[in-house]
Design goal:
The structure is a homodimer of 335-residue chains.
Chain A: H1 5-12, H2 16-23, H3 31-44, H4 50-57, E1 62-67, H5 73-87, E2 92-97, H6 102-111, E3 119-122, H7 129-133, E4 140-143, E5 153-157, H8 159-172, E6 178-183, H9 190-205, E7 215-217, H10 223-235, E8 242-245, H11 248-260, E9 270-274, E10 288-292, H12 294-310, E11 319-322, E12 324-327
Parallel strand pairs in A: 1-2, 1-3, 3-4, 4-5, 5-11, 6-7, 6-8, 8-9, 9-10
Antiparallel strand pairs in A: 10-12
The first copy, chain A, binds a DNA duplex (30 and 30 nucleotides) through helix 2 and helix 4.
Chain lengths: 335, 335
DNA sequence: CCTCGTTTGTACAACGTTGTAGGCAACGTT
DNA sequence: AACGTTGCCTACAACGTTGTACAAACGAGG
């Protein structure tokens, strides 16, 4: 019930290669021959065997997108854009979840050499530059700042200035005790480090003191971590009048903790996030946030990969910056 | 820099097949031969070419999961579980977004015959049983009620009784004017039809009238649709004292619209959803909902696929039911 | 020392596709 | 009439892997 070129060829009374030529749109096929072949293809419902084609061509037409977790909305939204952008190049996207575990990330990064995929777009959490070193020039594009100093092409946003801008927004609204949620140990969380730096820059520029007690770490960046960190900030020390959460899910968790503590947002405490996920447009209150241009990030990543695949694989790694802007909503309405 | 069995064989001084045997763990290989081969493999950093292996074996080790949209949290969470369950069978999961468009769904369903994937787990929105008819026995598992009467194996939950249970919960709390959000034209939205039926059953059993004006349609099941439907219910006719939204994102949208209208949840209006997505555990207020066992759904779907792959492809289609339970949270606290 | 069975390894073909080389008409040009 | 050119098509080999068939080496038992 499953047919091959050979079956079509026999039915149409031509050679296997002629059928192949028809399938691939080769021009020098007589119209009547082409018609006969196409008829046979339709009758047998022939579809090419991609494994065989890939074996022959050395390319699979599949790229992978590896992210820590799919049910983190930011990555889900990003995945959507990557799939769309890849479709323009005729690529199928294999989506991989690493769970942010170094071992799993290593497997994915080396799975690339299994010839199952032509290239990889990778958003690593735990991987180091050394892990990537041994992966001979297989095309890969990194997202985010986790791995720097160019073992591979990379797409980033300007985390420092974005964090600085949203913090300045809080300062402009008159907030003075501005907390930050989401800091991490320096050997992981490169994004955390940069966002913290932008936050500190803004404070310094405004003549505000940087207060260690206002900076809450978060092991992961989920809602639960945001809620826990917020509760911690509320019980210890003086209450902040604004909070900069290093991503939106942290912020949604913080909103929840503030609600439970009987505090109003933004009247008692203003809250901002980072990522502009869909949830933040419908939360109560709606969430002010930094909006990275996810579509652009996806497009640039796919383009870098395409260039690498068709072009010089040994060329020096490139780094592209995607734009961002602020989305100001209810959680920072002027009190 | 990329090596084949042949390269390893030459280096180890054995035949190509012996290397293949070592790679595949064939037993009758002398320890010293095995060691020599393994050394050569390590030195060359050899990795098998999966395209070739698949061509030879007729299997690719890849299954696809096709969902309408990845950034709908329910599907993202489900995807996570499917990836995990598939890993137990050594399968990689190719995730596909159909956007709920019939054309795209058809492409995916027939892409299955491209030999790129061994099987498909499919959550169709627009596809009909006829679309699936021509797909000769390629293993496929359907999720949800969209396509019924068994052209393929299927995993469902008991939508009618789940909807009835959560509606009964609202009735028990003393609510009498219970609205429903999410109804759809009957030729699409089979889940909507079943949930509406459960809702109506519960009303009838309690002696409450079924009021057309309290049933709001929603073209899609996103937050924005929920908010719009809720606003509609509030402006026309008598205000409901409870709302059953046919999924959680609709409910989150409804919460938002109620908030904007100055109504308190659950004091003025109680709200329940369906799906138990992560967001509902942190929304303000937290959301009472029907919690389908997503892990079980994923596991059953993968198992059905595995049975179909290894077993009788012509066997009659099976339908498995996954359990669900109620998660009662703040949005229905006794007023 | 021969026989027999097991262990260990090899050679070959095949999976389904496409690139290369080439053959055979039909055509226009010298 | 001989020639090159072009259009159309075919035969063959190759992509890298594994199943099948079989050969060589080995050990045990008589």
């Amino acid at each position: 019930m499953r047919h091959r070129l050979k079956d079509v060829a026999e039915r149409a009374g031509v050679s296997v290669k002629t059928v192949s030529n028809v399938v691939n749109g080769y021009v020098h096929v007589r119209p009547d021959t082409r018609a006969r072949v196409e008829e046979a293809i339709a009758e047998l419902n022939y579809r090419p065997n991609l494994s065989a084609r890939h074996l022959r061509k050395g390319r699979t037409g599949v790229i992978a997108l590896a992210v820590p977790e799919l049910d983190i909305p930011y990555f889900a939204e990003l995945a959507r854009y990557v799939v769309t952008a890849a479709a323009d190049y005729g690529w199928t996207v294999l989506i991989d979840q690493t769970g942010g575990r170094r071992e799993q990330e290593r497997v994915v990064a080396s799975g690339i050499t299994d010839h199952l995929i032509d290239g990889l777009i990778f958003s690593p959490l735990a991987l180091t530059a050394e892990d990537l070193a041994g992966l001979d020039g297989t095309p890969m594009v990194l997202l985010g700042e986790r791995v720097d100093h160019g073992p591979a092409d990379r797409v980033v946003i300007d985390n420092v200035s974005a964090a600085r801008q949203i913090t300045e927004h809080l300062i402009q609204l008159g907030h003075r005790r501005i907390a930050a949620i989401g800091s991490q140990r320096t050997d992981e969380g490169a994004s955390a480090r940069l966002r913290l730096a932008g936050y500190a820059e803004a404070l310094r520029a405004a003549g505000l003191a940087y207060d260690e007690n206002l900076v809450a770490p978060a092991p992961a960046w989920h809602r639960a971590d945001g809620a826990a960190a917020m509760r911690g900030l509320l019980t210890t020390g003086v209450r902040p009048d604004a909070v900069f959460c290093f991503n939106d899910t942290l912020a949604l968790g913080a909103l929840r903790a503030l609600h439970e503590a009987g505090l109003r947002v933004p009247e008692d405490v203003a809250v901002v996030g980072f990522d502009d996920i869909e949830d933040g447009r419908f939360s109560i209150p709606t969430l002010s946030t930094v909006a990275p241009d996810k579509e652009q990030i996806a497009r640039l990543a796919v383009e870098l990969l395409a260039n690498r695949l068709d072009g010089d694989r040994a060329a020096p790694a490139r780094e592209l910056k995607a734009p961002h802007h602020l989305e100001l909503r209810e959680s920072t309405r002027n009190p």
